[in-house]
Amino acid sequence: MQPSASDLIIRDDHLNFAGVDLAELADAHATPFFLYSERRLRANIAELAGAFTARHPATEVFYASKACSNLWFLHVVRKAGINVEVNAGGELEKALRVGFDPRQIVFNGVAKTHAEIERAVACDVRAFIVDSLYELERISEVATALGRVAAVAPRIDVHVPTLTHPGLETAHGGKAGIDRDDAAAAFRRAADDPHLDPVGLHLHVGSQITSVEPYRQAVDTALDVLAEVEAAAGVRLQFLDAGGGFAVPYREARTACASDDYFCSLLTIDDYAATICGRLRARRPELTLFLEPGRSIATSAAVLVTRIENEKTKGRRDGEGVRLGDEHWLTVDAGFNTLLEHTNYHWYFRTLVAGRAAEPADAEFRLAGPLCDGGDVFAGDDDRPYRRFPAATSVGDVVVFLDAGGYTLEMMNDYNARPRAAAYAATVGGDVVAIRRHETDADLSAFDLTPGFGA
């Protein structure tokens, strides 16, 4: 989902997000930092939930907390009236801490530990999304020991290809889920166990899916499998979990997108809802629909604010070393320690200069992070390696990365011993509040042990 015109505006040549002047905020707080918008977060939730429930009233939304599990963020999600999906014991504890009822929680993940399963069974989460036949045995073992019944929804690999980044594809023979040929055995095993309750079937095609066709194929395949396993196991399932993966338009597109450009999307959440709900309504309208969106809820709810700390001009040379022209470099104080996706998936985030927002972006720059690695260089605005900024952009200017709310706080690290960034939130009441403090130099060694230092 995209920020609306009221989220990003230009006032007196300064970029404002959620009513906050970003250049002024950067003068008041150490960069880099994230700024979240409570209004945009709530709007994303309302738009998504509304689109699906309008077409299939029996829809339940479980926000995928891996996208952002900050406690303030989770609190807003809970107050907005939806549920939560967790992928690890830590995410489960965070969800419980902010007040989610265990019945509002589904537990996903491909490597759940015995301790994580024990905690989730003990607090009676809504369902386990089961990744393998082995995991089904492990859940049974724990539930039996605790004298409880665990609700389970096996995750089936429906083997549907997508055009997203290969690292984000999850239903085409990769590591996640149970092979379709083993689906009936998984459901028979669960149905025969007094400590397991097979309640649903789960699928997930990946993240940043820029076409509705994979969802049409996946839901149809899943409904075929669902009918097969119901007959084989003698059960009647309650829900189909269609996962998430709805694309965010990271790249501006006015007319069309290349089919293989997964940063570009003209789809709306209504397009996904019409496809998924349409297939369900045509074939199994009595099923409850579960959804697990993460990126589409979190991404447009925040920006990253960073400052230019260095500039230089270097020659652009051919293979013989002949100088063909100049490249102007800008180095900011946030690299893949702050935006890990920019290198591990070569991700693209739009950028604007906060204090020059009304000036024409008429000059090309190479934009890089502060880390010692040569790979800490941001992708260009198109097929070329350059970012377009106003020609006068220089050291001290504030650069803003848009659509930075998802898979950012979660992935930060302290590589090169750089403290991790702070995060703030613009509330619906108009206040700016800290939701994550900036780390200190002391934090960098807080977990280090020093045996023998006193010897």
How would you summarize the topology of this molecule?
Layout: E1 8-11, E2 14-17, E3 20-21, H1 22-28, E4 33-37, H2 38-55, E5 59-64, H3 71-79, E6 83-86, H4 89-97, E7 105-107, H5 114-123, E8 127-130, H6 133-146, E9 150-154, E10 156-157, E11 178-179, H7 183-191, E12 196-198, E13 200-202, H8 213-233, E14 239-241, H9 269-283, E15 288-291, H10 295-298, E16 302-317, E17 323-332, H11 341-344, E18 351-353, E19 363-368, E20 387-389, E21 398-401, E22 422-426, E23 432-436, H12 441-444
Parallel strand pairs: 4-22, 5-6, 5-15, 6-7, 7-8, 8-9, 9-12, 10-11, 13-14, 14-15, 17-19
Antiparallel strand pairs: 1-2, 2-3, 4-16, 16-17, 16-21, 18-21, 19-20, 22-23
Task: Give the full name of the CATH homologous superfamily of the largest domain.
Answer: Alanine racemase
Terminus-to-terminus distance: 58 Å
Low-confidence stretches: none
Q: Which bin fits the share of residues in helices?
A: 25-40%
How much strand content do the residues show?
A: 15-25%
Quantity of strands, as a count? 23
CATH fold-level assignment of the largest domain: TIM Barrel
| Average of per-residue pLDDT values | 94
Number of helical elements: 12
Please give the CATH class of the largest domain.
Alpha Beta
For the record, the CATH architecture of the largest domain stands as Alpha-Beta Barrel
Report the principal-axis shape: globular
Class by alpha and beta content: alpha/beta
Q: Whole-number radius of gyration?
A: 24 Å
Domain tally: 2
Largest β-sheet summary: 9 strands, mixed
